[in-house]
Amino acid sequence: MKHCQVLVASLLMASGSVLAQNAADQLFDPDEMAKAREALWSSHGSQVNSLVLGARIEYRSAEDPLMVWEGQGWVGTDDNKLWIKTEGEYKIDDSLFEEFEVQALYSRAISPFWELQLGIRHDFDPDPSRTYLTLGAQGLARYWFELDAQMFISDRGNLSTRLEAEYELRF
After folding, report:
1. Which one, 47, 71, 76, 90, has least CB within 10 Å?
2. What number of other Cβ atoms are within 10 A of residue 72's Cβ?
3. Backbone angles phi, psi at 167, to 5 degrees
4. Reported pTM
């Protein structure tokens, strides 16, 4: 009998006629369902995860050897993360950095596919080094476009922005 009730509830939910947040609360004791959701959240929803992504690592061995990198990583839960982003260029013959940037950002999820980010960016090179307050949004837009928009305010009061958009085309 319960299987028929679950099937009917699923069909009603699929048709859009059930407006309840959790359809199972219509069939089972809501207190029991709340306990079950809490148990599920404590075992799966509050995990600390991490990711390290090397988006670009290049070495050029022409007459002026150069190493270029771009990468990012995060550690945290689904809602709150600490992001570290870095990119730069290093001249191997001269043993000096052409560019070198590091960002440390606190990220808060505002929807299933979007995060707001606030933090610090520091440019070590070129001279003089600069520090920026960073405010940004990062997420997945329609049609699977990955967007990363940032606004920077330097320690000298200069305002700059950056927008990156990526789309993976599979062959």
Report:
1. 47
2. 18
3. -140, 125
4. 0.72
